[in-house]
From TrEMBL:
InterPro entries for this protein: Glutathione-S-Trfase_C-like, Glutathione-S-Trfase_C_sf, Glutathione_S-Trfase, Glutathione_S-Trfase_N, GST_C, Thioredoxin-like_sf
GO molecular function terms listed in the Swiss-Prot or TrEMBL record: glutathione transferase activity
PANTHER family named in the record: GLUTATHIONE S-TRANSFERASE-RELATED, GLUTATHIONE TRANSFERASE 1 (EUROFUNG)
A Pfam family annotated for this UniProt entry: GST_C
Disordered: region residues: 214-247
Record-given protein name: glutathione transferase
Keywords: Transferase
Catalytic activity line of the entry: RX + glutathione = an S-substituted glutathione + a halide anion + H(+)
Domain of life: Eukaryota
Gene Ontology cellular component annotations, sorted alphabetically: cytoplasm; nucleus
The GST C-terminal domain, residue ranges: 89-229
Function according to Swiss-Prot or TrEMBL: Involved in the oxidative stress response and detoxification.
EC number(s) on file: 2.5.1.18
C-alpha cells in the first residue's frame, strides 16, 4: 500500500483526529506540515479551497479529501476491513455517525471558540469567555452522562467515534486556562474514557510525531502560534504585512 499524504498544521487539534485513525489501523502515511500563514493561500487552497486542515490524498484510490469527519469516514470505509474501529450493524453504524456529527458540530466549534476568547482574542471579554466555557462544559456533561453506564460511546469497544473526541479533550486545560489535573473536574466518566484512549500506543505515537513538527515551526505548545509573537493579534498583523513568521 502506498502511504496516504496528510496535510496538517501541527498545532491544530483536527488533523490529529485523522492521524490517530491512521495509526490505529496501521495505514502508512506521510505528513506535509504547513505553516498557519500558508493555509489560506495557494498551493494549499488548490487542495482545500476552504483553507483548513487536515486534507489527505490517497494515491491508492486517487482521491483528495478535506474535512476531518469526511476523512475519518473514508478511512474507516476503505481500510477498516476487519471492523476494528466500527460496526456494520444498522443501529450501531448510524449511532457512530451520530456521535461523529456531535463532535463536528458540538465539541469542535465550541471548544474552538472558547480557545479564541480565552487565549487568542486581543481583548478579554468576560461574557464571551463565560458563555463558551459553559458550552464546553455542556458538551462534557452530555458525554459524561452518556458514559455513566458504559465504557464507550457505542457498543462494547472503542470506535472511530470515541477517538474523534480525543484531540480537543486533550487540550481543555490550554483552552480554558486551567490546571491540567482540573480539566475534567466534575466529569469523572469523561476523564476515565479519555485516559483509556490516550494510554494507547497509537495516541502516544501521534504525540511523538507532533512534537518535532511543533519545534520545527517554533510553535508554542499551548497557543500554537510562533513563540516570537506575544499575542495572536501581533502574529496576524505580521502575516497581513507579509512578514516572515519563521522562528
Amino acid at each position: 500500500m502506498k502511504p496516504i499524504r496528510i496535510w496538517l498544521i501541527p498545532a491544530g487539534p483536527n488533523p490529529w483526529k485523522a492521524v490517530v485513525i491512521l495509526e490505529e489501523l496501521g495505514i502508512p502515511y506521510e505528513i506535509t506540515s504547513i505553516k498557519f500563514d500558508d493555509v489560506k493561500k495557494a498551493p494549499y487552497t488548490d487542495i482545500n479551497p476552504n483553507g483548513r486542515v487536515p486534507a489527505i490524498y490517497d494515491p491508492n484510490t486517487d482521491i483528495t479529501l478535506w474535512e476531518s469527519g469526511a476523512i475519518i469516514q473514508y478511512l474507516i470505509e476503505q481500510y477498516d476491513t476487519d471492523h476494528k474501529l466500527t460496526y456494520t450493524t444498522l443501529k450501531e453504524k448510524h449511532h457512530l455517525n451520530q456521535w461523529l456529527q456531535f463532535q463536528m458540530s458540538g465539541q469542535g466549534p465550541y471548544y474552538g471558540v472558547a480557545a479564541w476568547f480565552n487565549v487568542l482574542h486581543p481583548e478579554k471579554l468576560p461574557s464571551a469567555i463565560e458563555r463558551y466555557n459553559n458550552q464546553l462544559k455542556r458538551v462534557l456533561g452530555v458525554l459524561d452522562g452518556w458514559l455513566e453506564t458504559r465504557q464507550w460511546l457505542v457498543g462494547d469497544k472503542m470506535t472511530y467515534a470515541d477517538l474523534a473526541f480525543v484531540p480537543w479533550n486533550d487540550r481543555i486545560d490550554s483552552v480554558i486556562l486551567c490546571k491540567p489535573e482540573e480539566k475534567f473536574a466534575g466529569f469523572p466518566n469523561v476523564k476515565a474514557w479519555h485516559e483509556r484512549m490516550i494510554s494507547r500506543p497509537a495516541w502516544k505515537r501521534c504525540m511523538e510525531v507532533r512534537e518535532p513538527l511543533m519545534k520545527e515551526q517554533g510553535l508554542d505548545q499551548e497557543t500554537g502560534r510562533p513563540t516570537k509573537f506575544k499575542t495572536h493579534q501581533e502574529f496576524e498583523e505580521a502575516v497581513a504585512r507579509g512578514e516572515n513568521t519563521d522562528p
